[in-house]
Amino acid sequence: MPDPQPITVEEHLDRVLAAIEPLAVSTQPLLDALGLAAAEPVTAGVSLPGFDNSAMDGYAVRLADVVSATSDAPVHLPVVGAIGAGAADLRDLPEGTAAKIMTGAPVPAGADAVVPYEWTDRGAEHVRIDRAPTEGQHVRRAGEDVTAGDLVLEAGTVLGPRQLGLLASLGHARVAVRHRPRVVVLSTGSELREPGQPLGHDSIHDGNSFLLAAAARRAGAAVYRVGIVPDQPEAFLAALEEQLVRADVVVTSGGVSMGDYDVVKAALRPLGTVWFGPVAMQPGKPQGFGHVGPGRVPIFTLPGNPVSAYLSFELFVLPALRKMMGLTPWSRPQVTARLTHAITSPPGRRQLLRAHLDVAEGTVSPVGGPGSHLVGGLADADAVVVVPEDVTALDAGATVSVLPLDTGLDGGL
Ligand code: AMP
Ligand code: MG
């Protein structure tokens, strides 16, 4: 069957996103939710601080007893006890007395200020106070930070360290999120060997399953790297079927171009549920997307060349995973920069040129060659220049769209 006419990057992405639904909401332990979006708004059930407490190590006092204190005419008070954080037996301060109090310890009833150690002789039985505090000085008031009933996190807020710390402070042990997409990553190719294994004259190490598994994990997914499947349709289908039970998404690499042994196409085409075709981009022209198995698990069949596989992940898989997790924006935002060198580009295809982006200078420099096998250049790049389909040449100094590869998105990991 001849391949159809190429579709645009946007057409392919739109079809993918139309077929992807946000995953179910469940509550997760706080640390498991790092990088995910709050699926529901969170309202404080308690106030923070929960009780009036001391902001300093010092003495809790009644203002009326110490209001006249100066260094020339200090006030002397008996010390009736010590109140520690988490060790606060003394709950009422009698008139005419002081109590030692530590930072974070509850201020006893009757006391209305804390005199820091620095203004006293630090006495144990009696204390000399050299300076009068003002009303409420060095007391952190209950509810001054968060008041019970406050909306503290809107739905969709990405849960980073500060948000998780707040939830824990409010007493939440779990938080409602969309669970992490479980992504199964499969590499196809009879030439592939696991890293660490010896190579023959015709074999190479499987870089893609690590590249794609790492990209999926960084996007926030729970990843199962299955590794290598040989170029035999039965073996591919068997591996796929075994994995489907634990997959929200399957990502494969290789076996989708025009070769004689294109295993993924050969295995999946007969199912009729996976679209294969060219997308008008370079690298990354041969793409496939559809559903497999009784659970209609979305499958991305990415091309085998490593640069193609990685940029296909960026353009199509990453937005799908983010939609599943309820993270926005779905796609990494592009920026503009000035080209440091002139470039050329083939007509009719969107070209993605590996590059270095200098944000401070507002410039972008192409790095390495255009070959989609060049993993050294890929690791060296931190962005790609996006050259539109109808542009065939750009001069140095031209303003271009740039897709950063590591920045611009909240959430995930
Ligand atoms: P294919 O699309 O299967 O024909 O693969 C295209 C090119 O990518 C071939 O040179 C493959 O050897 C190479 N390739 C495919 N899969 C991988 C992989 N997992 N790691 C590194 N290179 C790969
Ligand atoms: Mg192959």
UniProtKB/TrEMBL annotation:
UniProt keyword terms in alphabetical order: Magnesium, Metal-binding, Molybdenum, Molybdenum cofactor biosynthesis, Transferase
GO biological process: Mo-molybdopterin cofactor biosynthetic process
Cofactor: Mg(2+)
Catalytic activity, reaction form: adenylyl-molybdopterin + molybdate = Mo-molybdopterin + AMP + H(+)
Enzyme Commission no: 2.10.1.1
Record-annotated MoaB/Mog domain positions: 184-323
GO molecular-function term, one example from the UniProt record: metal ion binding
Pathway named in the protein's UniProt entry: Cofactor biosynthesis; molybdopterin biosynthesis
SMART domains on file: MoCF_biosynth (SM00852)
Annotated Gene3D superfamilies: MoaB/Mog-like domain, MoeA, C-terminal, domain IV, Molybdopterin biosynthesis moea protein, domain 2, Molybdopterin biosynthesis moea protein, domain 3
Record carries keyword RNA-binding: no
GO cellular component: cytosol
Keyword Protease assigned: no
Similarity field: Belongs to the MoeA family.
Function: Catalyzes the insertion of molybdate into adenylated molybdopterin with the concomitant release of AMP.
Protein name: Molybdopterin molybdenumtransferase
Source species of the chain: Nocardioides marinus
